[in-house]
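2024-03-11 09:14:02 DEBUG pipeline.ingest accepted 1 chain
2024-03-11 09:14:02 DEBUG pipeline.ingest length=163
2024-03-11 09:14:03 DEBUG pipeline.predict start
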Amino acid sequence: MEGAGALDAARSLVLGGAEEPAAWRWALAKIFIMAGFIALTAVANLFMGSASAKWALMAPIFVPMFMILGYSPELTQIAYRIGDSVTNIISPMMSYFALIIAFLQRYEPKAGIGTVIAVMLPYSVVFMLGWTVLFSAWMFLGLPIGPGAPLEYIPVAPEMAIP
């Protein structure tokens, strides 16, 4: 049962030794919440091309909300960047969309917006699914984002002066 030992090691790594089903459900719920945020960002990208303007609208809402749930702001930024990047090629609001149509019309003179979206939609879906699966695996394994950047946000209680 060599595989069972590896599963137990992974379980203790991810859940910190917690064996109860509630801990597993919470770990999966956290992944589904971030996958939903990725999908929301991808849909918003279809209507708003500027990544910085979109982040300026979404960050003040989602970063504090996810911090309350225990996500680090860095993790929220990663999920945002995945959702923002996967639909760039099918968004008519992208600044290079007209240039892509012009290049495509060299080879297909009747090509237009619909042609570009129809050709690129499968790629966009596959990239979104692939990046979401990789991101979910990263979260499930509990790997840190980088040096000094954990997945979890642990609030520090402010020190209060006792009168």
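2024-03-11 09:14:41 DEBUG pipeline.report Residues 113-141 form the longest helix (29 residues).
2024-03-11 09:14:41 DEBUG pipeline.predict end
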